[in-house]
Design goal:
The complex is a heterodimer.
Chain A: E1 2-10, E2 14-23, E3 30-38, H1 49-63, E4 72-77, E5 81-89, E6 91-95, E7 100-103, E8 112-120, E9 133-137, H2 143-155, E10 160-165, H3 170-176, E11 183-184, E12 198-203, H4 216-223, H5 227-240, E13 245-249, E14 256-260, E15 265-270, E16 274-278, H6 283-293, E17 296-301, H7 306-322, E18 331-344, E19 353-366, H8 369-383, E20 387-392, H9 393-401, E21 411-416, E22 420-426, E23 433-438, H10 441-451, H11 461-468, E24 471-474, E25 479-482, E26 487-489, E27 502-506, E28 509-512, H12 519-545, E29 556-560, H13 569-577, E30 583-586, H14 598-613
Parallel strand pairs in A: 1-4, 4-20, 8-9, 9-10, 10-11, 21-29, 29-30
Antiparallel strand pairs in A: 1-2, 2-3, 5-19, 6-14, 7-13, 8-12, 12-13, 15-16, 15-17, 18-19, 21-22, 22-23, 24-25, 24-27, 25-26, 27-28
Helix pairs in contact in A: 2-3, 4-5, 9-14, 10-11, 10-12, 12-13
Chain B: H1 2-7, E1 11-15, H2 21-34, E2 38-40, H3 48-58, E3 63-67, E4 71-76, E5 86-89, H4 94-110, H5 138-145, H6 156-170
Parallel strand pairs in B: 1-2, 1-3
Antiparallel strand pairs in B: 3-4, 4-5
Classes of the chains: A alpha+beta, B alpha/beta.
């Protein structure tokens, strides 16, 4: 008897289908088609049905059959986990009164350091001779007029030391002033610059960064500060590091501080022991504590703090999705990641940003079998076909992976998904061991989005694309240089909008990235995000499933899952696991599908085995 | 001496169709802010795009600009002759456009992304009243009113463009 079977794997990000014809008399299923579409809604909820329907439709269309001809659809059983991610900064720089302009315009004018009293261009003529001044030039003054006024002042013995310019005119003014003076330009909120106050301007040489104003003692020297006052300017100096030009204004009441937001602490409730970790001890300490607690029973955040809010939010989301009461939502795993996030300095004049410490947290809760059963029933009703739960996801993934040419047990698999990183270990004569950890592709996307300060959204399109595609810089209208330094030439000229930009190399062509980050910076952030999430989680997951917890006893690891298709993760993993004597390879399900469709394929295979043996 | 001057790498700018001589200076100012030298050049072609192309052929930076009364064109040596890199029509005052194009020509040389009139998406926040000492001396007041004729150069589009760029650059900091 021939049966048409569909294996359906609903993941956090994609829904995959494997369609096959099985006949107990034949040695193997006859594969007809596979499909992969975006999951609709959150994994394990009834809103998955449209996605499942679309995936089935694609598969039956490819096979030339109809959905109602499917004899049995198999769902992955009781998806063990769903996860959520959140991020909070734990430090913040606040300037209680505007005191600095840290600033990296393309073209500041002139060179050097100037210290003087801020004076409006209009008031220059009435300034006392010999008194050092910094001239403030709003944008309604033409650069020629500004330059001639400054020249006139210099000729009349007024000690102009430099200038603060609102328009992009710094070079033009500096070139027309007959004394080499520093001019910081593009200071947007110039009317916030207090007048008649002592200030300092610094413009560095081409290719260099300012030194005096990024050094607390440098600022202290210029302003004659006491040690107590110097302590107050440290955040200013810190925020100015690496810039080409800057202004520091000494307002009498001015007071800049790095405020530590009470980041709070995490309470890790484990089976062996309970540990309380302050968030500012860093991600490494939290993850190390996780090793000591044993399997987690729950995690709590200190109420009234950022981390408390974060954990509460995760719990609330999970409660809404699973329709379980808040108190029954138990967090079974967390992944903490340190990062530096650009945050606007409160009280800055030119929208300065300061890199602040932040912690990203992925959390995971267990769901129960009831959810999937409910989904199976709803699906059966909607599609009028038989739907069953087919088996534990990890086992199915292993079965599917075994269709890769050249693979045999003992074998560990790493399932790199969007919401979770899973591992499973198969050894002859032993039950399959599996582990599910919080944090995967979606967390990488979030880290990229926050660290590069890309426009936020529910789905951060740009960050997602940066994660997926390599980078290139458009160096001329006819050639691009890729991130590995290779150059490609084009016959037809490129779009002038791409010129000089960092772009993503996608199958649809070059897509410019709407930020000013350099190619190196984007690449570093991207690779670090992948390393922090996938490499750490892979090691954690493999240690859990390895015999005796010893990762060195694993010989072969096959990578499956959507993130396994990533252009660099598998190579990064290979490098990382090589010292443990582990051979890592990307699975090729059914010799043709690459690392995806393992669970869906496994569901069909598992049913087929049961038919044959029973 | 003349030979040295001709060999010095410059952006080449030509005026065609009776464009105002003053416009050349605005192209030069745009390039000056980016720190790239510019030179006025004479061309055979009278058609604006071909004139810009001819200017680009003569430039050791491979970049040429042609200015006509209603349009400013940026060209590059390796482009097809009839396909300029950028061609912008002046709707109002042509001077900001010339400055923008001079800046773009320079940005091609220094390999920075070009600026487009369409980049001016971010609105300027409501302007705050200027903090100005009311007792300004007459000399300065006179000087301040004097440039009024020239001030149109800093039109709203230019300001918005600058704001957009600053915002973009904030990401680097």
């Amino acid at each position: 008897m021939t049966l048409l079977i569909a294996g359906i794997d609903i993941g956090n990000s994609t829904t995959e289908v494997a369609l096959a014809e099985i006949d107990a008399a034949r040695p193997a299923p006859r594969w007809l088609a596979s499909s992969r579409v975006s999951t609709t809604g959150i994994k394990g909820t009834l809103s998955n049905i449209p996605g499942v329907t679309r995936a089935l439709q694609e598969a039956v269309d490819a096979a030339g059959v109809r959905i109602d001809q499917i004899d049995l659809a198999l769902l992955n059983e009781a998806t063990p986990v769903i996860g959520d991610i959140a991020m909070e900064t734990i430090t913040e720089t606040i300037i209680t009164e505007s005191t600095m302009i840290g600033h990296n315009p393309n073209s500041p004018g002139g060179l050097g350091i100037g210290v003087g009293v801020t004076t409006h261009l209009n008031d220059l003529a009435s300034t006392a001779r010999g008194k050092p001044v910094l001239v403030v030039i709003p944008k309604d003054y033409d650069f020629q007029v500004a330059a001639s006024l400054v020249n006139w002042a210099l000729d009349n013995g007024i000690d102009v030391q430099g200038g603060i310019v609102q328009a992009d005119d710094g070079v033009l003014i500096a070139n027309r002033v007959h004394k080499a003076l520093p001019f910081v330009d593009e200071v947007r909120l110039i009317d916030h610059v207090p007048l008649n106050i002592l200030a300092a301007v610094e413009v560095a040489e081409h290719g260099q960064a300012i030194r005096q104003l990024s050094n607390p003692y440098g600022i202290a020297t210029l302003f004659n500060l006491t040690p107590q006052e110097t302590a107050l300017v440290i955040p200013i100096a810190k925020a100015l590091i690496g810039l080409r030009s800057a202004v520091v204004i000494r307002t009498p009441a001015g007071d800049v501080q790095t405020r530590h937001i009470p980041a709070g602490s995490l309470r890790l409730i484990g089976q062996d022991r309970t540990l309380v970790l302050p968030m500012d001890s860093g991600a490494d300490a939290i993850m190390a504590a996780l090793d000591q607690t044993g399997p987690l029973a729950d995690v709590e955040g200190e109420p009234g703090t950022n981390v408390g809010g974060m954990v509460q939010r995760v719990r609330q989301t999970m409660s809404d999705l699973t329709e379980k009461p808040l108190a029954e939502i138990k967090i079974r795993d967390i992944l903490a990641v340190d990062c530096l996030v650009p945050q606007q300095v409160a009280g800055g004049l030119a929208q300065e940003f300061s890199l602040e410490n932040a912690v990203g947290l992925a959390a995971m809760v267990n769901t129960d079998r009831l959810l999937m059963e409910r989904l199976a029933q709803a699906l059966a009703r909607d599609l009028s076909i038989r739907v069953e739960l087919g088996g534990v996801e990890a086992h199915m993934a292993i079965l599917g992976t075994l269709t890769t040419p050249g693979i045999a047990a003992p074998l560990a698999i790493l399932d790199l998904g969007a919401g979770s990183t899973d591992a499973a270990m198969l050894r002859k004569g032993e039950p399959v061991r599996s582990m599910h950890l919080a944090g995967a592709g979606d967390m990488v996307t979030m880290l990229i989005q926050r660290e590069l300060d890309l426009p936020a959204g529910t789905v951060s399109e740009v960050a997602e694309q940066i994660k997926r595609y390599p980078l290139a810089k458009v160096e001329s209208l006819f050639h691009t240089r890729y991130e590995d330094n290779t150059v490609r030439f084009f016959k037809e000229p490129l779009d002038p909008k791409l010129f000089g930009r960092v772009a993503l190399v996608t199958p649809q062509g070059l897509v410019p990235i709407p930020t000013g980050h350099t190619i190196d910076r984007i690449r570093t952030v991207r690779r670090e995000a992948k390393r922090k999430v996938f490499l750490r989680n892979s090691l954690r997951a493999l240690s859990h499933v390895a015999p005796g917890g010893n990762i060195r006893l694993i010989d072969f690891v096959a990578i499956v899952g959507g993130s396994g298709q990533d252009f660099e993760i598998s190579q990064m993993l290979m490098e990382q696991l090589n010292p443990y004597g582990i051979v890592v390879g990307t699975a090729n399900i059914r010799s043709q599908l690459g690392p995806v469709n393992a669970v869906a394929t496994g569901l069909v295979l598992s049913y087929f085995e049961r038919q044959r043996s029973g | 001496m003349a030979q040295v001057e001709r060999d010095r790498p410059c952006i080449h700018v030509c005026l065609v169709g009776g464009a105002d001589e003053e416009l050349y200076r605005w192209v030069e100012i745009g390039a000056e802010e980016e720190g790239v030298p510019v030179r006025r050049t004479a061309v055979q072609a009278s058609e604006p795009v071909l004139a810009a192309f001819e200017a680009a052929q003569g430039s050791r930076f491979d970049v040429g600009v042609s200015v006509t009364p209603g349009r400013v064109i940026l060209h590059e040596r390796h482009m097809p002759a009839e396909q300029p890199v950028l061609s912008l029509a002046a709707t109002g005052d042509p001077r900001p456009l010339c400055r923008l194009m001079g800046g773009n020509a320079a940005r091609m040389v220094v390999r920075l992304p070009l600026r487009f009139a369409g980049d001016d998406a971010t609105p300027e926040p409501a302007p705050k009243p200027q903090r100005r000492d009311p007792s300004s001396p007459p000399v300065a007041t006179q000087a301040a009113t004097e440039p009024a004729a020239d001030q149109t150069i800093v039109d709203v589009a230019t300001i918005a463009r600058i704001v957009v760029r600053i915002l973009r650059e904030r990401g680097v900091v």
